[in-house]
Amino acid sequence: MMAAVNGVNGVISENGVTNEIKASALDLIGETPIVALDRLYPGPGRILAKCEFMNPGASIKCRSSLYMIRKALESGQLKPGGSVLEVTSGNQGCGLAVVCAVLGHPLTLTMSKGNSAQRAIHMEALGAKCVRVPQVEGTYGNVTLADVKQAEAEGMRLVDELGAYFVNQFNNEANADAHYATTGPEIWRQTGHHVDVFVATVGTAGTFTGTSKYLKEKNPNLLSFVVEPAGSEPIKGKEITKPLHLLQGSGYGCVPNLFKFDYMDGTVSVTDEEVIKYKNLIGEKEGLYVGYTSGANVAAAVHLLQSGKVPKDAWVVTTLNDTGLKYTPVPAECV
What we know:
The protein has about 325 residues and is α/β, with parallel strands linked by helices. It is built from eight helices and ten strands.
């Protein structure tokens, strides 16, 4: 029998055949494909969407999870086998749960009860402990900044109690660095160096800041737009009039510390109705079941192409941030 020399990661086996076996789930993070949404939007112009729901934690947050933990290990802030704690709306927690399961770190997460229960189930299935914190302002499926602050307060209490490394995604530069190092370069390569516009919702701002920085370095004429929920548009400079919206993990009503205005050319506002419409169209026209921020991103891309704010033949790149399986269907009366 001809056994492989090291049967992982495309190592040559003894019979001279290269395999494509991955060493762990960490090797499944990134290198997600880009798909053209030509059935949903036939033109003029084109919407290209990076399929981040195909990461092992089913969201774009796997990228920053791996990058932040590796940086913490390299710096000595996190010791091998050490405990990790993070405050999450769910996707960062799921990404960290993947990384910590593989690397052997006990993981505790605090999350508002307003975030979908499916996220807690996912995290705990990967061995993490999820502490769900009661809401102080929002409703289920609608999480406000005050709710996030409540989950953060519980997280800070547990950091001291457990002596855990606090990931701190909202202030961790490695969050944005992950997208500068991976998401941006992948988009540039996969599109054949043809990106006219980049569009993204903003939660921590890691994706927008890191990706926009890289793409603007490659194409100084590239236009980058932030997507904000209507009524919660602090980056646009507007007063918060609707803190409750469907974009879990995004549009918290504040300008995140990682956000850099230097990389932004404008904002696009989307309503809950538009978010639902395009979330559904991505499924019905493209066969992809995705979450609400993905619907927001695509709604914004369509708006830009139809508004005259970008060239009518522009290639607009955005991200499909997570799977629709992470959400409980929202009743019509909650919209």
